[in-house]
């Protein structure tokens, strides 16, 4: 998947967590639409992909004028549109550069049940799920993932409302 698609997905998820206030990126999603379109331009390989990218850019540009309930729907629609765009962008990105992309972590199937424990055995807690890719890098990463930010500094920053890397983009004193 292209970095631009993954980055926009992270921004939209941050926008949802922040309450659809159009403050997940500096300048708002409408301003980010232009930058994202420039990032995607080299990955567009045909009319179909160009239409999908154009529809995403148009939706981002219109975002500030939407009512709060319409913003919720728009973010969900944009995330769905990115899913349909990801295969084309991934193919084009791998054609251009020999970058290795990471596969998304698939959640465990709810149908898989642990084997029953023997009689008298204490139940053990299930193992912690592996971290999501969005927890490891990007705007959704905890501040402690930054060099020089330890637990003490993270606690002080949390008092200012800064818990994730993306929160720092919008901080005003």
Q: Roughly how many Å apart are the termini? A: 36 Å
| Individual helix count | 7
- List segments where confidence is low: pLDDT < 50 over at least 5 consecutive residues: 88-101
Largest β sheet strand count, sense and barrel closure = none
Mean pLDDT: 78
Tell me the series of helices and strands, N- to C-terminal: HHHHHHH
Kindly name the structural category.
mainly alpha
The percent range for strand residues is: under 5%
Total beta-strand segments: 0
The coarse silhouette is globular
**Rg on CA atoms, Å:** 20 Å
Q: Give the fraction of residues assigned to helices.
A: 40-55%
Provide a compact summary of the structure.
The chain has 173 residues and is an all-alpha fold. The protein has seven helices and no strands.
